[in-house]
Design brief:
Layout lengths: L1 H15 L6 H16 L5 H32 L2 E7 L5 E6 L10 E2 L2 E5 L5 E3 L9 E8 L5 E4 L1 E2 L18 E9 L11 E8 L10 H19 L2
Parallel strand pairs: 1-4, 1-6, 2-5, 8-9
Antiparallel strand pairs: 2-10, 3-4, 6-7, 9-10
Helix pairs in contact: 1-2, 1-3
Length: 228
């Protein structure tokens, strides 16, 4: 009986261990399964096999899981094109599920979001979490679109071989969230933020006062929209 329980625990722990978020639970469960198995009367060869074969197979299984997750995730990612005004710099906020917001517009199966001059877009659609497929553009004087690259803070770390120029403007993904408040008078909404900036100017748009002003303007727009 102990051998069956131990093997069952080992199999379940091995199956969920490919997800890195579950490793913290899978490793202790695997050890419990191994101990239970070794306390049973199962043959030594079976005990050794059920103990070491999962360990040997874990890494290739993990890599396969990550590859399939990434492939499937990217295939099903929400395709968004963000179009910023000419010379736009600063924080852009997209507020989802707004009844009076910009309607969902798709071009070649990609949603097109035109960010206004003040950087706050009320949007009728929903911005999904998870894998993303974003493209970023700014309009030039002729109304044509110039692509902007996506930037991440890690690109500028000291161990990077070819970091981008710190004065090169790109788009930093700010994050996603929803307003939370116990005040019944407060406005609740879901949002996603982006920062169009160069690395050497990024701190200007992480300033508390600047972000507080953006939040106040966003709340005023949402309140006006939802009260119509």
């Amino acid at each position: 009986m102990k051998s069956k329980i131990g093997i069952t625990i080992i199999v379940l722990a091995f199956a969920v261990s490919w997800n890195p978020y579950w490793l913290i639970f899978a490793v202790p469960a695997f050890l419990i399964g191994v101990v239970t198995l070794w306390l049973s009367k199962k043959k030594l060869s079976a005990k050794l096999g059920w103990t070491f074969v999962p360990i040997v197979l874990w890494y290739p299984g993990f890599m396969l899981f990550m590859y399939l997750s990434m492939t499937i995730g990217q295939a099903n990612a929400q395709n968004l094109d963000f179009i910023f005004p000419k010379d736009f710099k600063g924080t852009a906020v997209v507020i989802s599920n707004m009844p009076c917001g910009a309607p969902v517009k798709k071009v070649s199966r990609r949603e097109v979001l035109n960010i206004p001059e003040d950087g706050i877009l009320l949007y009728q659609g929903t911005i999904e979490a998870g894998y993303i497929d974003h493209r970023y553009f700014r309009k030039n004087n002729a109304g044509q679109l110039n692509a902007i690259k996506s930037l991440e803070n890690y690109m500028f770390w000291d161990d990077q071989e070819n970091p981008p120029p710190t004065n090169k403007v790109g788009v930093f993904l700010g994050g996603m969230g929803s307003t939370v408040s116990n005040d019944p008078e407060s406005v609740k909404y879901e949002w996603m933020s982006l920062i169009v900036s160069s690395k050497d100017s990024l701190e200007n748009f992480n300033d508390f006062g600047y972000n507080n002003q953006m939040s106040e303007r966003a709340e005023a727009l949402v309140r006006n929209c939802t009260n119509k």
